[in-house]
Amino acid sequence: MDISSLAAVLAADTTDQMQNIYIPLPLGMHIGFCIIATIVYILEIYRKKSRHYIFMMLAVDATLLMQVFPNSTMVVILAIIEALLLGAAGVMAYMEHKKNKLEQQAEAEKTAAEQAQQISDGEANENSDT
Asked: What is the pLDDT of residues 16-27, one digit of tens each?
């Protein structure tokens, strides 16, 4: 597929044509959906500092490939791409969750040790006063 035919596909008005069975949304609506999803995921990446949102964003944006190549072969390729991206996002989310949980446990243990130290220091001070 050359650039001119790609431009023609992207510029085509789909309102008067029958919708392709492989493409769930008209091009304009699909691009709008992908733009909104990209913005939301970029905000989540920034806000939560989680890298797995990058893979989720790419998985959503990969659906635009169906607008350019609407055939059954692309459905299979897109399914594989989506499975890999969403699988990677799931694994990364699990790993980040596990890391955060370990950090929280270490923080709780540190706080408990500091509190125990303060209690023992307070008892030592009381014993030295008497």
From this structure: 555 667 777 888
